[in-house]
Design goal:
- By secondary structure, the chain is an alpha/beta fold.
- The protein contains 11 helices and 12 strands.
- It has helices spanning 71-82, 87-94, 98-119, 166-179, 193-202, 255-264, 274-286, 300-316, 332-336, 345-349, 357-371, and strands spanning 32-38, 44-49, 55-57, 127-137, 141-150, 156-162, 185-189, 204-207, 221-223, 230-237, 243-252, 390-392.
- It has a 6-stranded mixed β-sheet, sandwiched between helices. Strands 1-2-3 form a 3-stranded antiparallel β-sheet, with no helix packed on it. Strands 9-8-12 form a 3-stranded mixed β-sheet.
- A hairpin with a 5-residue loop joins β1 (32-38) and β2.
- α2 packs across α3 (98-119) and α4 (166-179) crosses α11.
Amino acid sequence: MTLTTPVQERYTRFSCPNPQCAQFNRPGEGNIAHRSWTGTHKHIERLRCTACDREFSEREGTLMARSRLPEDTVIQLVKCQRWGVCDEGTADICAVDLKTVHRLQQVAAQRAETHHRQVVREVDVPGVQLDEAHSKLRPHQVAWIHTALAMGSWFLLWVDVGPRTQEQAAVMLAQVVARVRELPLFLTDGWKAYSAALLQVLGIVYRRRRRGRVGRKPKPRLVAPKHLFYAQVVKVRNQRGQVVEVDTRVVFGGPRRFMKQLRLRQLGTTIQTAFMERWYGTLRSLVAPRRRRRCLSWSRVRHRGRLWLMVSLYNLVMPHKSLRQGRTRRTPAMAIGLTDHVWSYREYVWLPVHADRVRRQQMDEQIEHLLTPALQGYPEGSPPANLARTETRREKAKPILKAA
């Protein structure tokens, strides 16, 4: 077989991996050209960036990077992970060593999280459901899976594995607020930590006036802004743990205003968390450690890696039945506007992902700013006069969020 130089249209999916280049992480700019062929059988293509003259392999940033496995074997390994096959079963089906499966999980999970951090920004999300699920690890450990899911599109905005604390709930909310274009409507279960976490991330300072001339000034406190809408679905259980009643309550926004926003955003007419319950049903069926006791993860890192790989495939590769439009199948990424087609397994394996440290640092700084309460560090009494998030009784200033 005679190797020829491919056409230029083939290089539209590649981008320059040099962080110092002006075309870094910008595919489809026409700056990638063919350089040479390498490898034992001359089957690996070397590319060159015409902007900075950087040479790199076509496998850099993909699941084929630094791997001697054939392409079909890597695709088969990803398919086994997608359908929830255990590690030993995946190694047996694909005829590889168990360490190869663990290495693929580690590389694919890190790549999936990096791609999600860089792509999911400024998305339009009308409503978000948040919840946490109990998960077991070996030996005799417990981990909670925290998830934020976009209503209507079934897109998973963020997932994390950590303790069931208010700090973890605030981190989830900060991740959601930093990645959406406008503040969405929030729906959760009856866990009280979400209310305090919302005030920590989005709360504004309310400074009540002193009624008389004598006495101490009232202490400032955090209140919810007017454009924050949050409701809870509370499940009442009996002594056996069975659900006997489901109650709903609006925490922020008022019942009438909340229901009006629910209808205006086309999210239904009832307060419910059915999207999240359906996602956890999918998670239990497709992630082996969530349903099989002999397949439990030995570490939180590996457990988190399996979860992130599943989230990436769920958003990009797996079409959802409720998102179908006629005969056109759609994935959550298509419904939210991040892509225009259903990704194939080969396209997912060959997707080049290059870590952008500058954008990662900017996002981390924004999240850190959101996690800092407005009242933190102020002495007892009245906060400074130039405080941005302040609201008084006489002059109610327009609330200003921490997020830019």
